[in-house]
Amino acid sequence: MVEECQTPDFKNTGLRGMVIASTRISDVQSEASKLIYRGYLIEDLAEEATFEEVAHLLLNEKLPSEAELKDFNARLVKERAVPEELLAALRLFPKDALPMDVLQSSVAFLAAFDPDIEDTSKEASVRMGIRLIAKFATVVAAWDRIRKGDMVVPPSDELGHAANFLYMLSGKPPEDQVGRFMDICLTLHAEHSFNASTFGARKVSSTQAHLYAAVAAAVGSLSGPLHGGANTRVMKMLKEIGDKERIDGYIKEQLDAGGKIMGLGHAVYKNGDPRARILAPMSKKLGELTGESKWYEMSAELEEKTKAAFKEKKGIEIFPNVDFYSATVYNAMGIPMDLFTPVFAVSRISGWVAHVVEEKFAEAAPKPMLYRPKSEYVGDYCGPEECAWEPIDKR
Ligand SMILES: CC(C)(COP(=O)(O)OP(=O)(O)OC[C@H]1O[C@@H](n2cnc3c(N)ncnc32)[C@H](O)[C@@H]1OP(=O)(O)O)[C@@H](O)C(=O)NCCC(=O)NCCS
């Protein structure tokens, strides 16, 4: 029976390098180290735009006029509050629940309160998307306060999206410079083409499931350490190293043991991640502002020394990715380590919504297409034939 079974190799392509759909939302250029949102360079958006302008660009395919931006901001502000029922539900979670699990549960919870949930039009998806962009910041901040036993801080109508988020977390409006830095961080993390969470959202949307179902899947995907979880691991690594004196030893230990220096290297950008180049000086400046430059300085030294060790050991260049300096930026802003990935979600929700809308409604698509790849069965057959059924008492 089973002795003739042959097991072919177990493969997993991870869909690497496969173009599975077109997008007009963003372009990630590996060799040129460029990130482009709807035609605009990330450097220009980070320098000039607010997160709200970027979210409008992603969602509505164009930068807003002054009147459009005023209207978009007002819609976001109006949607910031979350239902009392959700706050009551958050109070029922164990205080040590993982923040990404709480966020994912909240997405499904909020679906039940959305008046557009059964409306399948594009306009309804955009309305739901604006609600989710607005409410993500509120949910993440509310959960952090609830788990610490603090009063939830209701959103302020006076502050922009980024500053309001920091205000809801700490109960104090941030200094202008810090609020602006958070605004830039949200812009930098807003979109990155077919990354794992965005693809997850698009895949769920391809079944014509509603936006909340797609976003819940994306939050789950972002929670993984190979995706959104890397920024937290960078900070943990810096704390583990603890002191500049230990950097050389740490790099040697990791490289000798085939381990990873977190926050360095990128699956796509081989000549440097353009977002890291914006975050490094921000981390330095925040260190100066808070009077605690230690973590920035350690990161900078770790970067330089790892680069040198890589050159020597592997003969290749390695560069910091978006997670490397965003870890010390969030740390300097007083954000707890386990909230770094939820902060990523507070930004990336804008990209997810744009992709879901494109997946379902892009005019160029001949028709919405259900994602359904093929797999190769490498499990057992009994000889050349299917296995004969064995009754339970004969197995
Ligand atoms: C992001 C990442 C998975 C990309 O991996 P990749 O596509 O295999 O990268 P490369 O092909 O450029 O790697 C070349 C070599 O450098 C090694 N390498 C890459 N990044 C490394 C790192 N941060 N620390 C140690 N070694 C690393 C690889 O293992 C590979 O070694 P090998 O030739 O002996 O197999 C990888 O760089 C990594 O794990 N970085 C740390 C985690 C991280 O910061 N993730 C967030 C990404 S945004």
Overall description:
- The chain folds into 2 domains: 26-227 and 337-361, Citrate Synthase, domain 1, CATH 1.10.580.10; 230-331, Cytochrome p450-Terp, domain 2.
- It has 16 helices and 3 strands.
- The chain has helices at residues 42-48, 51-60, 66-78, 84-90, 99-111, 122-148, 161-170, 176-189, 196-205, 211-222, 230-241, 247-256, 274-290, 294-314, 322-332, 340-361, and strands at 26-29, 34-37, 40-41.
- Strands 1-2-3 form a 3-stranded antiparallel β-sheet.
- The structure holds coenzyme A.
- The site of coenzyme A has 13 residues, from helix 15.
Q: Could you tell me the radius of gyration in angstroms?
A: 23 Å
User: Low-confidence stretches at least 5 residues in length (pLDDT < 50)?
Assistant: none
CATH homologous superfamily of the largest domain? Citrate Synthase, domain 1
Number of β-strand runs = 3
On the 0-100 scale, what is the average pLDDT?
A: 94
CATH architecture of the largest domain: Orthogonal Bundle
In short:
Helix content is 55%, strand content 3%. It has 395 residues and is mainly α. It folds into two domains: 26-227 and 337-361, Citrate Synthase, domain 1, CATH 1.10.580.10; 230-331, Cytochrome P450-Terp, domain 2 (Cytochrome p450-Terp, domain 2), CATH 1.10.230.
